[in-house]
Amino acid sequence: MEILWKYDLPTNQSSDDYQYEGPIFVKEDNLCFICDCFIDHKSEQFLYIVNKNSGEMRKKFCFPKKTVIPAKCFFEEYGEQIIIYTGTLWILHGEKLSALFDQPIDDEINSYLIYENNFIFADRSSLYCIDIDAKCLKWQLQLSNTKNYTIGDISLFENSVSCYGNDQLLFIDISNGKVLNQIKVPRVDKLFNPIRMKDGSLLIGFTNWSNAGILRYDVTAKKVIWKCSRSFEGPLLRRKIFLQNDLVFWVKNDTELICVNIENGNEIYRTKTTPGLYTDPVFLNGRILYGTAGRDGFLVSLAAETGSENWAFPLKNGCAYFDLYHNSAIVGDFEKRIYQIDLVSGNVLQEIQADGEVVGRIKVYQSEVYTVIWGNADQPIRLIKLKIT
């Protein structure tokens, strides 16, 4: 790997890692990046548009109101446009930035999806649907409940949107926000992320305050076929389930990855992800990849069927971000190194020594890598581009 260019970002003694963990998005010749910077002793949030070939800035926007940290911001492509979230929803067309939704959002966006021309998102208590083309609110559905749980993750389910609300799992018509169906299971507080099986039954994640897991639900008989759970003190942090062949997975509060057989609900294995899971698990060619937290964390590869460890690559200050390039992973750490790691063996295919700790997300685009490295007394914090050789 070789560094092709570095773009200097505003830096001073008050700069902190979290300010530079914003998303990186590449479209054609442009790179978009969101970060917080201290300007005249005041923290401001900026969108940088940089020419990805030369590293020269094309445009910079200062957002008028900052309500979420950069790690909570996101980009989503929509045709020739880019949807941007910074606590407020924007849309970028070329170099023109305008509001996608100018109404205030009570809480930060917890989960979202795009379906056709609809941008659907949930905050703590409501579900919204925006017509992207018209830039207007189509409908809003209040989904608060007495137990003070947030809605959590929403998911697309057979041309409808599914989420938890009003103490049951709801299936909602995207065109008008009407509830098409609902499921409530006795002695279960919260249901999420339904997945249809071949026989018509559903795999559904669930959580109570003291336990969580996965159940299989007979829609016709309206009864639970099986339920597999583990005890802990909640709330559950990652409300997602992951289906792979005849196995389904869930994460017990970032400390364990648990694998369940979809036919009978038997727990196949559970593996510790301590000191804490930093990333969602990624399933690829019979392997599970994830990063762990901690002063000395790892990028870990497991065999999906057995849970046995293929390899664990140590990374200083943990593995919060990685991206894939063909049959390898690109990752960086606080040892000021960026690695290309073979997914089969865990061996380092190549590495490069940077002159600062790797603090940003890892974005792979074609054979290019983009990230942010830390500064020092002589150099500012920088957005960099590398070439995978």
Report on this model:
- The structure is a single chain.
- The protein has 389 residues and is mainly β.
- The protein has no helices and 36 strands.
- The relative contact order is 0.11.
- The mean pLDDT is 91.
* Count of beta strands: 36
Termini separation comes to 5 Å
Number of helices: 0
Major sheet summary line = 4 strands, antiparallel
Q: Which value, in Å, is the CA radius of gyration?
A: 22 Å
Read across the widest sheet, the strand sequence of neighbours is 1-36-35-34
Structural class determined from secondary elements: mainly beta
Approximate helicity band: under 10%
Q: How much of the polypeptide forms β-strand, as a percent range?
A: over 45%
Shape label: globular
Chain-averaged pLDDT: 91
Contiguous runs where pLDDT drops below 50 for at least 5 residues: none
Protein traits:
389 residues, mainly beta, 36 strands, 4-stranded antiparallel β-sheet
